[in-house]
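Milestone M4 deliverable, item 7.
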Amino acid sequence: MRATVEQAKPGAVFVIIDLQYAGSKAIMRELANRVQAEWDVPADVIGTNLFAGGAPAWSRCPYEMPAEVQAKIFRGDSGFMPKKWTRYYYLVLQKQ
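Output delivered:
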């Protein structure tokens, strides 16, 4: 991640989002801690839900999906249905 941030233009924004998994939370927290401690990632944390109680954010999937999405991802014949509510963690970084 450090190399990617270093090669980006100043002001570039990186958004990292993953579902509510302990491993995802731990990795994003480690990255955020490195940024905040000014270790080896030249960026600022401009948004996250990892530290304020660590509660994940909620996202609601629309009940009616676009036909293109339903046709290519959730065709219905296999019984797969999207989750109506999804919990996730996010980290937004901006290069200095």
